[in-house]
Amino acid sequence: MSLERPEPSTHDQVGVTERGLDYEAIDDLLGDLVIGRESHLNAEGFVVRPERVAEALDRLKQQAGFDHLSCVTAQEYDDRFESIYHLKKYADPTQEVSVVVPTSHDDPHSQSGNAVFRTADWHEREAYDLMGITYDDHPDLRRILLPETWQGHPMRKDYDKEQPQVVTFREHANPLQEDHRAGGGEGDTMFVNIGPHHPATHGVLHLKTVLDGETVADVEPDIGYLHRCEEQMCQQGTYRHQIMPYPDRWDYISAGILNEWAYARTAEDLADIEVPEYAQIIRTMSAEMCRIASHMLAVGTFALDVYGDFTAIFMYSTRDREIVQNLLEDLTGQRLMFNYLRLGGVAWDLPEPREEYFEKVRDFLDDLPAKLEEYHDLITGNEIFQLRCVNTGVLDPEMAKSYGTTGPVARGSGIDYDLRRDDPYGYYPELDWDVITEDGCDNYSRVLVRMKEVEESAKIIEQCVDLLEDWPEEEREIQANVPRTLKPDNDTEVYRAVEGAKGELGIYIRADGTDKPARFKIRSPCYSNLQALPEMSNGEYIPDMIASLGSLDIVLGEVDR
Amino acid sequence: MNWGLLQEGNNSSNASAGAANGSANASAAGGGEVQTLPDTLGSLLGLGQMGPLETFAMAVIASGAVATFLLTLVAVSGIWGKRKITAAFTDRIAVNRIGPFGLLIIVADAVRLLSKELVIPDGVDRPAFDIAPVIMVSSALLGFAVIPMGNGIQIADPETGLAYVFAVSSIASLGLVTAGYASNNKFSFLGGLRAVAQNIAYEIPLVVTAASVVIFAGSLQMSTIVEQQAQTLVTLGGLDIPSWYAFVNPFAFVLFMAANLAEVGRNPFDVPEAPTEIVAGWQTEYSSVYFVLCYLSEFIHIFLGGAIIATIFLGGPAGPVLPGFLWFVIKILAVYLFTQWARSAVPRVRIDQLIEIGWKGMLVLSFANLLLTAIIVGVIA
């Protein structure tokens, strides 16, 4: 079967045994850095000394092969603050370990992991911004989501919500100020604010760009314009029903069900809920529809960035995306904010008459190859497009891993990493499909990956439809028996991720014995992917930077949460 | 205006006549004496031998008529046609609510655009900021003074007609850089710089390619160039194929079409505006009536490009059955359609690639074309 992954090359790494990870060996590896152990549902957590975090991460990366810092979660207990570094392996994401860094409550500071994983930079800035933990040796510890002038750290328990906040309205920086940052005095550079209102920023993103002529000397993404306190809101909802609508609003460009699945998977693991097979198939099918819709839009907007406005491709992809949207609307009753998954299954069964629905889906799948052919003619086959996209926005695999990129961005850099296969969930392991990778590492590869993934998603949907069609009527169980109120045990911690449209969408939940999570942390793939933009764009031309941004396919709703 | 009357009054440059007639015209026009529109108007009004004042008055009337026609054409094809064409390319319906086929959107849009607030940003360099759009529009309109539009509609026919067209149309670059520099906006500035770099890089191949036509025609005079193309090139099954320079030298034609796309700033060469990169380039800060002028100048430039192409490559207003003027409009619109097609389907090249194509590709090719043409004409003639 095509799903068989390449032989994992993790054998010579510390702690890898035939029967899974041997945490004792990792304990030995970390040695004197460890001051305690915790057990999370997904992995063992090692409590390390706050002043030697980088060393611990480095040992785990170099010797135990944990090369993927998936997420950094900061949280507050009554007596301490804690940063959790969720580590995985790109080669096998089921091998996980958490590095727990406790700090004192009065003066929370610990060492930064930035030296080992570049992605720690932004994650720690976020932790500093919202939780107020200071990271020593961090290159640039500033607020990231909230305005610079914000007072206090809003996710702290003692945060005064009534406190007036003064957010001055002022220009970002004097755009006419002379700038000599690049090139050592020779030749002036020019500072340009690209965004937050700009045709190519795909939402409200602000790129602080320093130009040397037409070349990008430096670019710094400034995010947070769409920050809606999603984590906080999820912490105020009950597990059973009140949280599920929120994931739709993270990556709101029709990736809703994929996002919902991230929460569903995490919460189901937390509450130990088994999802019926039939519901898994419906989930898989609808999620892949979302992926197609999402990738269609990604390809269309990328064409917008490279071709300019009023081009055919954007409208074509929108037209074809409409069909998927109609299918999703028939299924869920909604076009964007689906709220279709439930803990333990899905909200309702397929629309009646079922045959009609299956026929609609099949019609769509039948037409798809011809349409994709047209896209390839218009986009990937075009010489000018190749001229523009091949070898621009290069993100080499090492950098891609260091920045924690996932999804089509990582796969476009030749990293064979797809959670649907590598950390199986849903019905994916039973189906026949391939993980697409391209070795080009450039804008072109990323577009190609998305277009090919549409084909794979179509394959998955087709198989799901076949299965659903033949499913005996009396066995159509759409939801497991889930208690009305879920109260996971106190201090249960879990971090789970699914393959969202843009990459690894992870959720960390810590339960405190009530029916609401004590800490709800979202690992957004776009957040990590966007951080790699300067790596791809510095030294290239402005149009390439715009194209790279488009090829990252970010949704600001998910970046800012 | 009664075109039929004009046709009657015109007796020498009716290019819609057959090929034989055309060659007769060519010999008749050997002295460069073509009756221009002001002359025709004068004789229609019975002014007889016109003095300078009468000539001036008639020229103003003629220019007004031509400009009015052009602006109408821009209104129809720019506001309504562009939407319909783009919609056809992109599977949409576009305007269809106001008036028949949505045509009244032209009125609605004109009112909408003109009634918007004219925002003059802080720190713009006036009056340069105000002059720039006017420069751009007028430079494009001036070019039409020497274009023979068929049925005797040609305002003037100087001996250096072709040189004049290129000279005035490149004044637009001045407008672009003025707009970019005066706007006090970095995107405008970048757009202005790009526009100038692009226009210089593509103007030279454009002019050099046109020079190859001049070698064929042996004259810079527009009417002569048109007449030369009326001769029969070959006869295919009883059908006379005229010696339009697009048929005589298709290579030059393709080269000119490509360079013209860059000259008018349309995909794949729309880098001076490049909406997704530098917002709207040099026109970022223009609003309301100034924006209308910018918009207008772009379209008139496209039409001027089409008119030049029609004149020097497609036999000017020549064509079977229909009156010459209609053929002329059809040819202009065909070129316009081509630019819209490119806009809908072709990616934009990067600025460095654009300059590279201009200086390393087009320039070399256009000189090669010029040299080859000179050799061929020298050997044959």
Automatic annotation (TrEMBL), chain A:
Give the Gene3D superfamilies listed for this entry. Cytochrome-c3 Hydrogenase, chain B, NADH:ubiquinone oxidoreductase, 30kDa subunit
Q: Quote the catalytic activity from the record.
A: a quinone + NADH + 5 H(+)(in) = a quinol + NAD(+) + 4 H(+)(out)
Chief location category: membrane
Query: Does the record carry NAD as a key word?
Result: yes
Entries under InterPro entries matching the protein: NADH_Q_OxRdtase_suD (IPR001135), NADH_quin_OxRdtase_su_C/D-like (IPR037232), NADH_UbQ_OxRdtase_30kDa_su (IPR001268), NADH_UbQ_OxRdtase_CS (IPR020396), NDH1_su_D/H (IPR022885), NiFe-Hase_large (IPR029014)
Q: How does it sit in the membrane?
A: Peripheral membrane protein
Which Gene Ontology MF annotations are present? catalytic activity
What family does the entry list? In the C-terminal section; belongs to the complex I 49 kDa subunit family.
| Assembly, per entry | NDH-1 is composed of 13 different subunits. Subunits NuoB, CD, E, F, and G constitute the peripheral sector of the complex.
Check the record and name the NCBIfam families matching this protein: PRK06075.1
**Protein name stated in the entry:** NADH-quinone oxidoreductase subunit D
Q: Which organism is it from?
A: Halomarina rubra
Q: What is the lineage of its organism?
A: Archaea, Methanobacteriati, Methanobacteriota, Stenosarchaea group, Halobacteria
Automatic annotation (TrEMBL), chain B:
Q: Show which residues constitute the signal peptide.
A: none
Keyword Metal-binding assigned to the entry: answer is no
Q: Per UniProt, what is one GO molecular function of this protein?
A: NADH dehydrogenase (quinone) (non-electrogenic) activity
Q: Where in the cell is it found?
A: Membrane
Q: Where are the transmembrane segments?
A: 56-81, 93-111, 131-150, 162-182, 202-222, 289-314, 321-339, 359-380
PANTHER family for this protein: NADH DEHYDROGENASE SUBUNIT 1, NADH-UBIQUINONE OXIDOREDUCTASE CHAIN 1
* Protein name (record): NADH-quinone oxidoreductase subunit H
Q: Which organism is it from?
A: Halomarina rubra
